[in-house]
Amino acid sequence: MSYNYANATATLDHLLHDTSNNSAATGFDFIEELIRAADCFDTNHLHVAHVILERLNQRLRSPAGAKPLQRAAFYFKEALQGLLSGSNRTPRFSSLVEIVHCVRTFKAFSGISPIPMFSIFTTNQALLEAFHGSSFMHVLDFDIGLGIQYASLMKEIAEKADSLKHGSPLLRITAVVPEEYAVESKLIRENLSQFAHELRIRVQVEFVPLCNFETLSFKAVKFVDGEKTAVLLSPAIFRRLGSAGSTAAFLADVRRVSPSVVVFVDGEGWTEAAAAASFRRGVVSSLEFYSMMLESLDASMVAGGEWVRRIEMLLLRPKILAAVEGAGRRVPPWREAFYGAGMRPVQLSQFADFQAECLLAKVQIRGFHVAKRQAELVLFWHERAMVATSAWRC
């Protein structure tokens, strides 16, 4: 099956042009090869994909010192090879030391790029507006990561309770996590409990193994009368569900919980990738997204590339592995699924807009801008959405 590269997208054209001052064809060749390899997954010519990827090993030996598109292509080549060999599972941390390294890397990412903080403050603002001064709150999180994002939410809750002269508020966090999340779970619970003690608020953190949730759905989650509940979603849960029927059933169950708000954060370019009609198109869409992500990361770094390397390896590479693994799954457009479940979007407040503008003014990196898109608040790098946050009511 042929691939008309020139018609693929203006985004990849832009990145190809930037890849080499001497010859655009230098970038053109390895991208075409990578796309041909992805095409082989659609046609089930996996032996051909293997040959192409082996050839790419000679072209893309290392991401070190390369341009954004070349680095992204290296990680996607790795992910496709892992898919062929069956070794494409997202790597898990085996020790607290590894997790601490990842936490430090996330903090560095937050310090040099507006992308992580945009995700955090838009989510927090949607939660705070939905909880509206309540002192009994429950967040059901389907993509907790390392839980770092909760520190700022807890601080906001503590400050609001203090200003209103309320008693010590209670924040319950229930995270649905993979079965092998024991090391991360221990650290998250300890860190958040310690921080809550310092803030003089109460926090309870519970973890529900994903296998239990898949069997019991929301019966696996403890709900308490009188609490205001919020549900946090990301592309990860929809990749896991993997079909229109499973997605519809899941969202119907979400609605039965009657949360005050459902917050969806797309920080993976999933809106475009999930709409792709084939594995190849899904890979191309994700390749575009992460190429632009790496380009924005390079623009964010004033000096030194060591943190960029760590951010790529510890934070972005696992997401690329997951994106490639899920590229062949056909799921309905998420907005359509939300509407189909009877949910309706809620406009994020003007204060969220103000925070976004303050964030961009602080980092002062040309190329980032914020705009609204169908009730979403979106952080763009040039014309590509990097993070899109939306709030929904049932």
From TrEMBL:
One of its GO terms (cellular component) is nucleus. Coiled coil: none annotated. Keywords: Nucleus, Transcription, Transcription regulation. It is found in: Nucleus. Residues 187-219 are annotated as: Leucine repeat II (LRII). Residues 325-393 are annotated as: SAW. It comes from the Eukaryota. Its main location: nucleus. InterPro entries: TF_GRAS. Belongs to the GRAS family. This is Uncharacterized protein. It comes from Arachis hypogaea (Peanut).
